[in-house]
Design the sequence.
């Protein structure tokens, strides 16, 4: 399981660093890495989606979330829930570095939307079954790939690094669809927080549980790894003590400011829900 | 069943596709049971569109209506495809998510509410990018939570179709109803052409696009549950029957779909017609 240095493999690097390659499970395509590794006092299930230049689906060779990746994530998560039934629900750590969902004609025909939905479903179902689910953003968290791998977590953590990006669409595609040059999109992002790609802007939306500062995201040393493991363990404890839904994303100070409309909509809906 | 000639039946239809979202919701619910929540007079608009020179709309392009389905309490969330392509922004997305969360709250309290989603959307509204994506994740979460209590019914009628993150919402529904005019896909054709090249997909080839992601193809390959004519009465009848069915959600059928994918050769992928044989519906007598 050597790292191909020619590939932008932040997801794999952090997966290897955090698990120490202990408790690896070899089940299915090489693009979905799974390991049961010690984290503090417990064993957690780590899951990463990584590039594989030999992936049999050519549109999912560079870290995209493709058909087999979506369904395999769903299989691994559903197995996790089944294995722990009647016992303590293991923590699940999603290591996130996904550039996009796979774009292709076969992907559409064969239901890439359903494959991504199956993964989102399995993450949400694990969370509802009491598994603390924590997403750690170490690279790109883009669009449908992030919806499938990470966005259903109880808690979202991110490394404070310029290469950690969160967005609904790649800059090039967004530029084409909105008929704007890429530079214009970047300028808009500076003015309008939800339009930005960088993780510091994302942190201002109130959706992140923690932004982990001062860590070398590209070449983490032993201290960096130890710190991130500590943050993950704390997030797991926090998730176990909290509710199983996503309501925590609306309660932070940043959310109250930037997502004021999200909160207002829910308040007014609640007032009007039952007939007067 | 009517014995009228085909053209008379066609003329007697009331097009659902031609209805705006508010009238679609009204057409689905039992007669005179429609009650809109957060209507235009509540004036909850997008705070982000005016900052970019786009005029906001006072319902942000989503209609939430309480009412009844076959006499039982229901809520309909209808996306207005005519406003910003049915795109999901902070307010419109929170309206859908918030309505589903309240339905879930009532279900958990032992007062079931039947949720119906009328999806006509290109996905995330790019002017609100990350807040649209966040709301869509919350919509997914609520659908998965609700499905443990009641069937969640989705309808994609056309002509916008259902794309992006909202195609995942459609895929999470217990029952998905489509018309021949519907399209359901993850990536819009323009985006595929941009990302993968025109040889992968020519976004102006409408015939090809419908053959890949059109309602008829989705139904024939088991990725949608029912196909109906563009008729408001027929669609409402399908919805009423769908809320009575206990379905095994497609997104939970993990081993079945992994097995199907294992038989696909990506170097020689099946054409749409061939996939209709490979993934034939069980109720169509396939194998």
Sequence:
């Amino acid at each position: 399981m050597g790292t191909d240095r020619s590939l932008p493999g932040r997801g794999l690097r952090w997966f290897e660093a955090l698990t120490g390659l202990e408790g690896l499970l070899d089940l299915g395509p090489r693009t979905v890495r799974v390991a049961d590794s010690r984290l503090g006092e417990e064993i957690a299930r780590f899951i990463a989606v990584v590039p594989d230049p030999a992936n049999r689906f050519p549109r999912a060779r560079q870290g995209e979330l493709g058909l087999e990746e979506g369904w395999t994530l769903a299989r691994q998560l559903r197995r996790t829930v089944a294995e722990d039934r009647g016992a303590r629900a293991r923590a699940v750590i999603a290591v996130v570095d996904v550039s996009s969902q796979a774009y292709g004609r076969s992907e559409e025909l064969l239901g890439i939307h359903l494959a991504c939905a199956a993964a989102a479903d399995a993450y949400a179902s694990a969370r509802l079954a009491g598994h603390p689910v924590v997403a750690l953003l170490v690279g790109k968290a883009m669009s449908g790939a992030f919806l499938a791998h990470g966005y259903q977590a109880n808690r979202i953590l991110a490394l404070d690094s310029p290469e950690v990006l969160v967005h609904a669409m790649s800059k090039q595609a967004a530029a084409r669809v909105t008929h704007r040059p890429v530079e214009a999109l970047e300028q808009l992002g500076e003015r309008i927080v939800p339009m930005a790609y960088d993780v510091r802007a994302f942190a201002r939306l109130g959706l992140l549980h923690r932004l982990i500062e001062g860590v070398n995201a590209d070449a983490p040393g032993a201290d960096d790894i130890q710190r991130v493991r500590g943050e993950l363990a704390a997030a797991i404890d926090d998730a176990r003590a909290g509710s199983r839904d996503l309501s925590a994303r609306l309660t932070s100070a940043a959310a109250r400011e930037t997502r004021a409309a999200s909160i207002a909509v829910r308040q007014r809906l609640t007032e009007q829900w039952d007939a007067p | 069943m009517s014995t009228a000639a085909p053209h008379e039946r066609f003329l007697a239809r009331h097009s659902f596709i031609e209805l705006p979202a508010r009238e679609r919701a009204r057409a689905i619910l039992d007669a005179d049971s429609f009650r809109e929540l957060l209507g235009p007079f509540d004036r909850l608009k997008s705070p982000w569109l005016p900052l970019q020179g786009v005029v906001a709309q006072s319902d942000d392009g989503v209609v939430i209506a309480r009412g009844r389905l076959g006499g039982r309490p229901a809520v309909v969330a209808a996306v207005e495809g005519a406003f910003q392509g049915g795109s999901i922004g902070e307010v419109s997305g929170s309206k859908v998510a918030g309505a589903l969360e309240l339905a879930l709250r009532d279900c958990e309290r032992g007062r079931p509410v039947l949720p119906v989603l009328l999806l006509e959307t290109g996905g995330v509204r790019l002017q609100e990018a990350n807040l649209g994506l966040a709301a869509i994740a919350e919509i997914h979460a609520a659908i998965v939570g609700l499905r443990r209590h009641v069937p969640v019914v989705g309808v994609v009628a056309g002509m916008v179709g259902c794309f992006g993150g909202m195609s995942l919402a459609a895929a999470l529904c217990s029952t998905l109803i489509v018309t021949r005019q519907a399209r359901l896909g993850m990536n819009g054709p323009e985006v595929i052409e941009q990302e993968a090249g025109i040889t992968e997909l020519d976004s102006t080839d409408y015939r090809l696009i419908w053959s890949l992601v059109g309602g008829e193809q989705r139904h024939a390959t088991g990725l949608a549950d029912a196909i109906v004519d563009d008729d408001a009465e027929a669609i409402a009848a399908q919805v009423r029957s769908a809320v009575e069915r206990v379905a095994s959600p497609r997104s939970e059928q993990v081993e079945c779909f992994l097995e199907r994918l294992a038989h696909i050769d990506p170097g020689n992928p099946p054409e749409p017609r061939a996939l209709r044989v490979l993934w034939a519906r069980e109720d169509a007598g396939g194998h």
